[in-house]
Amino acid sequence: MRPKRYPYGKSYPSNKLSKPIKELTIIFRGNESVPEVILNGINFKNSRAGLVSLNLNWHTKDIQSIDELVERKVSLEYYDNPGLDMSLCKLSQSFKL
């Protein structure tokens, strides 16, 4: 079965107007083993999504020119609806100032 994409099976054209990551909030707490992740207003903990990996590659110190800002990338993997019906969702998006 092919993994669904966020949000839940909708596909996005690859243009600048439809970025899958519009708002991402990550909260680390010392007493919890998993960070709180809120993607586009949906809290992973409340929606039972299972975080697999979260990568932030900003490469600020390595920038040689303004064109290299495209290398700023956020990648996110999570299980949507854990249980018998779960699917692995993968998001990756570059950011440019």
Overall tally of domains: 1
Instruction: State the share of residues found in helices, binned by percent.
Output: under 10%
β-strand percent reads 35-45%
Radius of gyration, in Å, reads 15 Å
Distance between the termini: 37 Å
Shape: globular
Mean pLDDT: 75
Query: Can you list the strand order of the major beta sheet?
Result: 1-2-3
Number of helical runs? 0
Which runs of at least 5 residues are low in confidence (pLDDT < 50)?
9-17
Structural class: mainly beta
Count every beta strand, where a strand is a DSSP E run of 2 or more residues.
6
Let me know the largest β-sheet: 3 strands, antiparallel
Which series of helices and strands comes N to C?
A: EEEEEE
